[in-house]
Specification:
The chain folds into two domains: 1-58; 59-106. 93% of the residues lie in helices and 0% in strands. It has three helices and no strands.
């Protein structure tokens, strides 16, 4: 009797694990599809925006280059700050993570 109970529990456990794995696989597939759709939509919006800006006489390549330069500058300053004050940077990151955690719960 105990052997049958143990076998039943093992089979039930394996069934649950299989279902969870299937659910995870389905969720990953849906997330992939949603990501691909979002990328397509964003690419379409960006292309449309570039066309509209170009029609208005805005040099989008200069704007993009300026944004890249600014991002690189900010990234460099952040890296320098992390190296100069690692404990402060870690505390700030933990605080931001905690705040985002609280906000995502609500």
């Amino acid at each position: 009797m105990a052997i049958n109970t143990a076998r039943f529990k093992a089979e039930a456990s394996n069934d649950v694990i299989g279902k969870v794995e299937d659910m995870a696989s389905d969720a990953n597939a849906k997330a992939r599809d949603m990501t691909e759709n979002a990328v397509r939509e964003i690419s379409s919006i960006v292309a449309s925006l570039k066309t509209q800006l170009r029609d208005l006489g805005v040099d989008t390549e200069k704007v993009i280059d300026g944004a890249k330069d600014s991002a690189a500058s900010v990234e460099k300053r952040i890296a320098e700050e992390i190296v100069a004050r690692p404990v402060r940077s870690l505390a700030l990151a933990a605080g931001v993570g905690l705040l985002l955690g609280f906000l995502s719960r609500k």
